[in-house]
Predict the structure.
Amino acid sequence: MEKHSSSLLVTKGGRYILLSFVTILGFTIAILANRLFPQIADVVIEPYPVGKLFVIDINELYNLVLLGLILLYVVQAVYSYPDEDRRRMFLSRAPFRFAAGAVLAVWDVLGTKLLLLPQPFFPGPARILEAFLAEGDYVLENTLYSLRLFASGFFLGVAAGVGTGILIGWFPKIYYWVYPVLKITGVIPAVAWMPFALTLLPTPFAAATFLIVICAWFPIASTTAQGIASTPKVLFEAARTLGAKTSFLMFRVAIPHAMPQIFTGISIANAFAFTTLVMAEMMGQPGGLGYYINASKVWSAYYKVLAAIVVMAILFSLILWVVGLIQSRVLRWQRGLVKQ
Amino acid sequence: MAKGVGQTVNTKTVLEIKNVNRVYTDANESTIEALKGVSLDVAEGEFLAIIGESGCGKTTLLRLIAGLDDPDAGEIRLSGERITGTDPGRGYVFQQNSLFPWMTVEKNIASGLIARGVYDREKQEVPEYIRLVGLDGFEQSYPHQISGGMAQRVAIVRALINKPKVLLLDEPLGALDAFTRADLQDKLLELWQKERATMILVTHDVDEAIYLADRIVIMTPRPGKISEIIPVNLGRPRDRGTVDFLDLRRIILGKLHLANARPEPEYVL
């Protein structure tokens, strides 16, 4: 978090505009490569109707997506300009974004124009977008299925984990009887219970929800319990001399103290839950991105597999981002107290 | 010497400690007599200091009065009522790190009102107490963002907002630097005179005890007991440089030295 104040790192004026240009230069090259490089390999580029008015092919969609990215970064560059920290942040990402655009350009030329990459495993970036053009509704349907499954499993898992964690951390008796069970069963990957879940629960959705719940439950319960149990005694004593009853000690002392650990548990559980979600979907769900990958693999439609992976990357990043926002809001009292 | 400003001549006993014993068992199964046969009466509105080397049971005694710990024998009565458990009528200020890190200064000070369920009725008191200790402008700061001296001001008014009959101060200024400490000693006196609470201060600083207290209780360890009670008959405000002050300091240091019966006294100044 050190701040550079040397004049070598001026982030204003002409230098800022120049580096902002570098940010979008990579994507511009990617568009030019797609537009100008001749289509040497024999690949059919089909036009798809979008709505009733437009007809678009994958190259046009690819260019639109890149153009969208460029616009996004231009807006961000303008938005970041008034604030020095934001400017610095924006510029620090310029080389990476340039490289990303350049990689897309090379991939496009090798994967679509020259077809030098082994097919059908490595389609060009534009080809991946074909999944959205050809069956966008179906991809969306599966994405929503995944999202619904994740939400129901994860929220229940967080609630169950925080609930049991508080009980374990608060009551020594419950700690004695439940914590060892938690420790042993916690190391078992949730998908190992799949055969039981699929047999014993009424619907595949319920079975997958159950698996996500238990995979989220264990890490959250154990970190919550640790957070509660490690509350400094002096804080309880201070609260008691101020007139606190049990509810205050629990909800205003122990649980706030455990909050950082609860969020540690939630981030661990998040990663577990993504894995469990996709594995469960690949092993017996009527929908979802994991199901979509499996179904596409059967037809060797690897561009669809890659499309599903791209959607997962975006979806899971968004979920992590939202959790991060909630975390920094809840733990704002820690700002400056811990190295972040 | 006449009693000074801010003191009501009052002999009404508010706190009675009768023959209190407290025994601990340590890790080696041997017993430690933290307190043995301790008896003490504290007058209403009095500022009492308890001094003694570490292990003499002064903090144990304070914790028993607070109700954070129970005596093995004897009893402690506040206004005639036997003490069982903690009560907001007996405020406690810890040496350090007792603020709730997730609450702002304002919320920490209000926490006693929240704990007692009277926050909605009495929240207008919070800004008054913030002003009283000069923390205006720091209402929304978190404890880690303020200095140690400010944190102790918060801890003191957090206990005072409950209007306790007795305020128990467990070396509240012990972790502060000399300048902040002198400043907060004056602040403590100001609060004592304004709130008219009985204050019991545990300290190992002889100057602090003489500067603040009406009476000084000297305790000795193994077993922890009261060896002597010395009245401080100096007018207020007190001057740390007067002959009377220095005389008293010499006397108390001598008694501590004798009481400890050690070749090297802890209180070399």
